[in-house]
Specification:
This protein has about 130 residues and is mainly alpha-helical. Helices cover about 75% and strands about 0% of the residues. The chain has one domain.
Length: about 130
């Protein structure tokens, strides 16, 4: 799949995680535990440790700021989502459903020329869960 497909999937998952965090802020502990575990497992990989430290600093901010960083529709937001520490907040079924829906949309988008694909992607971004 194209890079935009993976970005769309990670953004949709981030939006759902953000909604879940607002309803249950104690889920931040999942991210903190993931970062602790991943830091031990990847202790010899400085680039990953840098990403984990970046997320640790984000997790010290107010919840609204954390959710904004997680869902930012910027290059920085997309980069952060590549190493999101929120694995485990969504169930495997939810992740599968998001990926399945996005694959379906991606399959229809490949038929479009580039301007129509960009318009369709913008509409896809606005789709709800």
């Amino acid at each position: 799949m194209n890079h935009w497909y993976h970005d769309a999937v990670s953004l949709e998952m981030a939006r759902r995680v953000s909604d879940r965090l607002r309803a249950s802020p104690e889920l931040l502990r999942v991210a903190q535990e993931n970062l602790e575990r991943w830091s031990r497992l990847n202790a010899s990989t400085p680039s990953l440790l840098h990403c984990y430290e970046e997320w640790r600093k984000i997790l010290e901010r107010p919840l609204a700021d954390i959710c904004a960083a997680l869902c930012a529709e910027t290059e920085e937001g997309a980069r952060l989502r590549q190493n999101s520490p929120f694995a485990g907040v969504l169930s495997p079924v939810e992740v599968w459903e998001i990926k399945s829906r996005m694959r379906h949309h991606a399959a229809t988008l490949v038929k479009f020329d580039e301007p129509r694909r960009q318009l369709a992607l913008a509409r896809l971004d606005r789709l709800g869960p």
